[in-house]
Amino acid sequence: MDHHWPAAGAGCAGAGVLLNLPVPGFQWVMVSLLLGTPALSVIGTFGAALTVGLKRGGLLMSLLVMPLYMPTLIFGAEVARRGAIGMDIQTPLLMLAGISAASIALLPFASAAVLRINLR
Amino acid sequence: MSIWEYANPKKFITSTERVTPALWGASALCIVAGLIWGFFFTGDEARQGATVKIIYLHVPTAMLAINIWVMMLATSLVWLIRRHHVSALAARAAAPIGMVMTLIALVTGAIWGQPTWGTWWVWDPRLTSFLILFLFYLGYMALWEAIEDADTAADLTSFLCLVGSVFALLSRYAVNFWNQGLHQGASIMRAAAVTGTDTEEKVNNIYFYPLMLCIVGFVLLFVALVFYRTGTEIRARRIKALMARERAEA
Lengths: 120, 250
Known about the structure:
Chain A has helices at 4-19, 26-51, 57-84, 90-119. Chain A starts with a helix and ends with a helix. Chain A contains four helices and no strands. In chain B, 78% of the residues lie in helices and 0% in strands. Chain B is globular, with a radius of gyration of 21 Å. At the A-B interface, helix 2, helix 3 and helix 4 of A face helix 4 and helix 5 of B.
């Protein structure tokens, strides 16, 4: 997680800054990426912990993780969409931040428990 | 006499086998009676015509699709807390049933949506969350199959069910927020509808009674299927243990 997020999540957002795309509401895409990608990374760790004992766990992991990603993606996309057309973005932004905060706070315990089971 | 007595596999099998035939019979009776009543003895709806009759399959399966996941959550918790194998196997046995119910609800919904909304599929909150639920069932079953050790598989799938439930609830809220959608709200058991003050929104009694019969039938069918499949899972595990012992002796 601590190596993965700077590489993937922040990298995505950083690449956006460098490209500086001239799209309206572009800054909201950045904000939603910054706020949302930590949740995606932590959910990914949970999926990886579930499938760590398997020989070909990659495909299974994407199947397990895809529905878990859904709320984060929906709120993230909603922040970007509303930002782009100048609508109020407070609620989806707060929900996105809330999902990230709760995932970072709680999911590591689930991942740890799952890893402990796998190490048994 | 407590409910935990039935956590004993032998006791579970003997007692469920006694009631399962009655459950099969009652569910078949309810579904057949409900469907015949619904299809042939209720009139066509004023605006939807005969298409309204798919409600007798769509609503019971959609209700079960959600509630089976809740049942799996409960049995997963029982497994994690009290370590009763029957509980874990019941969750495993229920998952494919839940997946099929979700699929039936999605397909009948599409068939119903085509003439009434003019489209098979829209990214509507309820439709989208059902698709997500379908993926949850799929992932859950795949994880069960992927892991060799039975106890590890039970533990990991239980955790997936727990975490998945939280995210399934979140998705339900998220898609609601994202899009108002075409699908109407629940209009069968609304309090106002039951007391009769909300005449506009309520499902007419003509449709309500056969629908209730179908719902009862499908719930009984689910219970019978879970009992049957859990018994099968218990026996399959016993066979596996016996074969392992035989190999060890040989």
